[in-house]
């Protein structure tokens, strides 16, 4: 099976020294891939690079068998890439429905109602909140709004940067379940997670990023079982 997203030798940053350096990474269609690693390793920078929000110094990014290196974010959304940033990812003064609408601007769907209905099927908690300002929701509900907004552009690939950040353990499980629900409808997910152990449990593939380089890759289970990964990146102990 050919990869939906294929990254080769990607070196990128913000204009100074590169933050990520020579990254190779493949994401198979309809899978969940998780990037873990220490703070400052370049995890967000890698996701942002795929979404054209950094300066790419070298390397190539292919999506759906097409070279997308150098395309702008506004060109990526219509071809099927959507992203949810690490923080402050909802418009607090807009209602939930309006937040979802924002997700349609870059790639207006033919049938907005039908797309919204599919999103609300994935996130049933949002249905009763459609008229409420997003700023009045809990952290977990806001994360659902942010993911729902991204899905309104009907992406093939969804980039999620720490979707469980700051959430209670109960909500964390809920968000991971929702992510599996998103995969089940055929969307491919590439996400960064600090809750590495739980994230690897639901991951088809995991990648450990250290100092801007891809230190180790494997299935979620392989990384969970790897002595070195456990000791250095999962806080020791058994999975
Ligand atoms: N907009 C920016 N401009 C300049 N440097 C940046 C910018 N964003 C991040 N950096 C730098 O890039 C490096 C990697 O940051 P990045 O946010 O990719 O790390 P991360 O692995 O996502 O960390 P965390 O786990 O804390 O979210 C850091 O040294 C950071 O200071
Ligand atoms: Mg980050």
Ions and ligands: adenosine-5'-triphosphate, magnesium ion
CATH architecture: 3-Layer(aba) Sandwich
Find the CATH superfamily: P-loop containing nucleotide triphosphate hydrolases
Assigned CATH class: Alpha Beta
Topology-level CATH name: Rossmann fold
Number of domains: 1
Structural class: alpha/beta
Give the assembly state of these chains: single chain
Strand order of the largest sheet: 6-7-8-3-9-10
Distance between the termini: 30 Å
- Summed up, the helix count is 9
The pLDDT mean sits at 94
Element string (H = helix, E = strand): EEEHEEHEHHHEHEHEEHH
Low-confidence stretches: none
Estimated share of beta-strand residues: 15-25%
Shape: globular
Could you walk me through the main structural features you see in this protein, from its secondary elements to its overall organization?
Helix 3 packs parallel to helix 5 (139-151). Helices cover 34% and strands 25% of the residues. The protein has helices spanning 43-50, 73-79, 96-102, 112-122, 139-151, 169-184, 196-202, 220-225, 227-233, and strands at 5-13, 20-27, 32-36, 55-63, 66-67, 81-84, 157-161, 188-192, 205-210, 213-218. The relative contact order is 0.18. The protein is globular, with a radius of gyration of 17 Å. The strands form two sheets. Strands 6-7-8-3-9-10 form a six-stranded mixed β-sheet, sandwiched between helices. It has a four-stranded antiparallel β-sheet with strand order 2-1-4-5. The longest helix has 16 residues, at 169-184. The chain has one domain: Rossmann fold. The chain contains nine helices and ten strands. The two termini are 30 Å apart. The protein has 239 residues and is an alpha/beta fold. The mean pLDDT is 94. The site of adenosine-5'-triphosphate (ATP) has 10 residues, from helix 1.
């Amino acid at each position: 099976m050919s990869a939906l997203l294929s990254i080769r030798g990607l070196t990128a940053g913000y204009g100074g020294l590169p933050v990520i350096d020579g990254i190779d990474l493949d994401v198979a269609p309809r899978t969940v891939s998780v990037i873990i690693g220490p703070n400052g390793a370049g995890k967000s920078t890698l996701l942002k690079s795929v979404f054209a929000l950094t300066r790419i110094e070298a390397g190539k990014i292919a999506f759906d068998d097409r070279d997308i290196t150098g395309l702008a974010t506004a060109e990526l959304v219509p071809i099927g890439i959507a992203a949810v940033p690490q923080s402050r990812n909802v418009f607090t003064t807009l209602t939930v429905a309006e937040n979802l609408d924002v997700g349609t601007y870059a790639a207006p769907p033919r049938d907005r109602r039908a797309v919204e209905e599919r999103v609300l099927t994935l996130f049933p908690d949002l249905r009763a909140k459609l008229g409420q300002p997003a700023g009045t929701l809990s952290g977990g509900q806001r994360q659902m709004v942010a993911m729902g907004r991204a899905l309104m552009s009907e992406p093939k690939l969804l980039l999620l940067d720490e979707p469980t950040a700051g959430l209670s353990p109960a909500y964390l499980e809920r968000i991971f379940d929702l992510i599996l629900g998103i995969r089940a409808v055929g969307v491919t997910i590439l996400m960064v997670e600090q809750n590495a152990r739980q994230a690897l449990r639901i991951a088809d593939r995991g990648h450990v990023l250290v100092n801007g380089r891809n230190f180790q890759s494997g299935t979620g289970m392989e990384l969970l079982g790897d002595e070195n990964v456990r000791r250095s990146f999962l806080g020791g102990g058994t999975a």
